User: Fold Major facilitator superfamily (MFS) profile domain-containing protein from Fusarium falciforme.
Amino acid sequence: MERVFWLLGPYVIFTLAFGGVVIPKLNLILDLVCRQYFADKQAHDPDFTLNPALLADPQRKFGSDNPECKIPEVQKNVATFMLIMSLLTGSLSAIVVPRIGHLSDRYGRGRLMAFASVGGVLAELITVLAAQFPEVVSYRWMILGSVFDGLTGSFTAGSIMCYSYTSDCTPPSNRAVALGLIQGCLFAGLAFGPLLAGFFIKWTGTSVYLFYVVLGCHTAFALFVWLVVPESLSKRKQLAAREKWDKEQELRAQTSGSWLHTIRTANPFAPLRVLWPKGPGTSPALRRNLVALAADDAIMIGAPISAGAVIILYSELSFDWGNLESSLFISALSMVRVFILMGLLPLVNYFGRIRPAARLRRESGVAAVERNSGADNLDVWLLRIALMSDVLGTVGYVLSRSEEFFVTSGMVTALGGLGSATSQAIISKHVPSERVGQLLGAIGMLHALARVFGPVLFNGLYAATVGFFPKAIFVLLASIFGIGLLASFLVRPHVVWHDEPEEEREPLNPGTFDTAAEQVPIDEDQVRFQ
Assistant:
């Protein structure tokens, strides 16, 4: 558990920058697209008079503050542009993320976590150039930034590496709490980042410098996790995973001439096979659990991310919100999630798991060794409660007629923060430790696919209905969460992928280890938590 705290410090800084730039970046795109829209309109219609406010320095005036930009035509162009960016990032991430997850089982989490940040650095560099020199660097160059971001796995790969790192360092009983801390840092960044960004913009008098700060935070995070954060996987586990991989490759090479092998190799969805495992130690219940949990996790992570931008666009259009109001809304929702993940979830875990286990240990006089044993009843019900809150909150969005009701509905959805941490912990409890990276890589692929198809659904639907029924996005969102809630009732507790026999897990080359130092390949987690 101590190693997780090495990750929290840089992650907090990273998420503060990430949260602080969400609204300014959205409104930067809105401003640049709006200016381009009216410039094109003036070029095609010489009689059209362009409002001088739209030619103002973008360092001083954003599109959300221009009433001329709050028209369906501009909103449609913004939604379409963001859709293109999301499609590129998501589709490339879907290919890259599962491979990064699988590689991390063999080469460690830290270096690949740093690699996942490189694309973000390049993307923010292009954003800085577009914000600083809008007349020279077109906002369309930000599409190239999305390509760079996707080629390194984007935020999805970084999150999966953080979850894998945390799973390596924590026992099953505390895993949800540890993952809650990681996700709590994310929402703390979303809560306080916009406030700090607002003060920073007011202090400097321009928003452009904020993008420089974000670029620096991305770079610092990548360097810190690469050079400073200790690796969570021991050299022994990494080497054993590599040798197991080599053996699998040798077996595949023997069938490389078959057409079936060629099809499997070329299949871009091949990493998802880990969600439907077969062979010794598996069962139909395991396969059903993994598929249902993967679907729920993709919904709880992907749906809010995919719909987030258009929810802000909707609120700014319907309630005449600007930077301040949108930032306060995001901050309030995120602060509630921080309280739930860092305050409520540890309390629930203590009274639901830690305290009963301590009482059992006192009564029996035996210290139990913690092993992965699948989800328990507490896990399952936390997941269902979280999804129920998401359903109720999004229905509230549909029914809202005032800002107060809209904000209250958002607070109800914030309780869904329990589900994201719980689902990641449950999934990692179903598989042996040497498959955590591979499994979470497949989950990351689903997250990336959600970033592909989610924006198509939400941005496309918003662009098509903003003129007559903009709340259609909330109807779709409530339906998706409803499907996730139904899927959660398929999950059964205490189902696990039983570990392979120890002799099958030993390294293929016994001479790799010093027999004097490691006479028996003891699992480090067992030693730590006995």
Observations:
- The radius of gyration is 24 Å.
- The chain has 18 helices and no strands.
